[in-house]
Design goal:
Chain lengths: 114, 112
């Protein structure tokens, strides 16, 4: 079964520090990998998207990397802010035209403390 | 633009009761989705629609029905609610040629 596994499940860091979240997937083939940010009580919002041929993508203080050989992705957050406290979800998309739908990870809950 | 809206925001049901969750989008998107989100699990697709008048089953469709009578609305129905349907339900939509899904704020449902 296609799976997306995220680690750690939860993470607590101090404001201003950097952190890295991990995503391992077995979905194959795939067209792209996304990271979503989900604030408490809200719906997920797309942060980054990478096709299988891309290695890195940045969005402000967020940088996502992708290693298609090892089937791993990471999301690096630089100089964390209190507003970064949220769940970060890794999502893998099947190839265009595939009947399969998105595969969602269960998320990493990040808490940034002052 | 309001984007994707969902009503109600929160609902408590007794086992066996029925209800309908409404999703509306004002982005003229063809594709719409209903997901449920449970603790420790990724979002799971319940049903989806690729256009007005069409629906299809997702990963966990049992106990739910949907209708897409208008392009901007996607309804999720529970005919006879069960405690296992206690969850947070998210609606999403996307344009036909763009893969980014836009999510609503969610509906929190508690079935007693």
């Amino acid at each position: 079964k296609n799976q997306v596994e995220q680690s750690p499940q939860s993470l607590i860091i101090l404001e201003g520090k950097n952190c890295t979240l991990q995503c391992n997937y077995t979905v194959s083939p795939f067209s792209n990998l996304r990271w979503y940010k989900q604030d408490t009580g809200r719906g997920p919002v797309s942060l980054t998207i990478m096709t299988f041929s891309e290695n890195t993508k940045s969005n402000g203080r967020y940088t996502a990397t992708l290693d298609a050989d090892t089937k791993q992705s990471s999301l690096h957050i630089t100089a964390s802010q209190l507003s970064d406290s949220a769940s970060y979800i890794c999502v893998v998309s099947p190839p265009s035209g595939s009947a399969r739908q998105l595969t969602f990870g269960s998320g990493t809950q990040l808490t940034v403390l002052p | 633009n309001a984007g994707v809206t969902q009503t109600p925001k929160f609902r408590v049901l007794k086992t066996g009761q029925s209800m309908t969750l409404l999703c509306a989008q004002d982005m003229n998107h063809e594709y719409m989705y209903w997901y449920r989100q449970d603790p420790g699990m990724g979002l799971r697709l319940i049903h989806y629609s690729v256009g007005e008048g069409t629906t299809a089953k997702g990963e966990v469709p049992d106990g739910y029905n949907v209708s897409r009578l208008k392009k901007q609305n996607f309804l999720l129905g529970l005919e006879s609610a069960a405690p296992s349907q206690t969850s947070v339900y998210f609606c999403a939509s996307r344009h036909t040629t763009k893969e980014t899904q836009y999510f609503g704020p969610g509906t929190r449902l508690l079935v007693l």
